[in-house]
Hints:
The protein is α/β, with parallel strands linked by helices. The protein has 15 helices and 22 strands. The radius of gyration is 22 Å and the shape is globular.
Amino acid sequence: MKITIVGAAGGEVTGSAYYVQTKQASVLVDCGLFQGGRKSEALNRPPTGVKQKLDAVLITHGHLDHTGRLPLLARRGHMAPIYATPATIEMTALILRDSARIQAADAERRNRKRQRAGEPPQEPLYTPEHAEAAIQCLKPVPYQQPVTVAPGVQAIWAESGHMLGSASIQLLVEEGGKTKRIVFSGDLGPRSAPILKEFEPFSQADMVFLESTYGDHDHRPFAETVEEFVRVVQDAVERRGKILVPTFAVGRAQLLTSLLAWMVRKKKVRPFPMFLDSPMAIEATNIYLRHRELFDEAMTKFVAEKPLRADLKAMKLCVSAEDSMKINDVAGPCLVMAGAGMCNAGRILHHLKQNLWKPETHVLIVGYQSHESLGRRLVEGAKVVSIHGEKVAVAAEVHTMGGFSAHAGQTDLLKWFSSIAPSKPRVVLTHGEDKARAVLAKKIQQQFKLPSRLPKMGDVIEL
């Protein structure tokens, strides 16, 4: 059996994809888009070396960096079944349709410039038709039950606590009269985060592919981050400023919406204008509410007491571009949640352009910011940034709230791994920058006496 790393390796955090080949089968685990900057996005092509005929694609969760290259497979004629949990199927369909729309809009904008320069047009990375072709291949699987996905290959999905429907996947591969177990952690969520159930680790593996996004440190405790969030909101309301929150539409938007509802319900803040400026986040929230079986006990009780909308009467859902533009005319205090979460596209750029130079503005960074992204430059303290080709001074207060991350920190990564460590698996660390992977590898060696491999893109691992 050979496993080729075709994404999220060599220090690259996005673009997760693993190509598993046995004598009988050909399976892809995840097929994500590379995100962040031009260098990363230049990697967006069908996974290198993947045969024209796949038996199956297995998806850990719906985020674009794990699903965004599926339409490229469809474009090339790969029409194999794509297996995922029911909630992941809904999220993947939402995310791929949005991605295809953005690809088409970006291509149209580029081609207007190319036309003026007398250059030939360029096609988008993929079209809505390619996205729909991929979506039609999605097939639901249950949690914790083996599913035959290819000749000699079964797969089991287990809760990973990262986003609605997310899972780790264990492959049971029969080859030469032996069964090998390969576990892909997918993205793991922090145990302290609300809304979703905690991760459920596997206990057996011959090889583990473990994410390492935050392998070098722990996040600030969630309760402390909530306290800071409350203080920032209270201060901004008092100073009549705008609070801008670059928000990942799936996961972070729902977390922050529930926190704002809790603040109003507990009278931590008086109702004030709030805007969920993301059609995608609005639809993702509806998907969350359709899958309450995945909520943890506290969230189940919270929504049973009273609907969130009853607490958030002051929140406006902005679907159209016109709704979004009207926010510019709203004087503070107000809070705006808009995508994209890394400030690399979307409506948040317009809000930042209008408000970053104002000292009464607060910017809340609530998730991972990749290299080269505008969000990373804000986190690193840039005094001037470029938005839509225009220089904008950064006079706003920028707050980094790592405690809201949907990724497990070092302690939780090690906790998840501790359940599987007694089976002495080979360890492969992916989905992390080089420093994070190196620190986590050292911790695993110290704690479990197991070496880790830190692969580069394109590395082939034999088992």
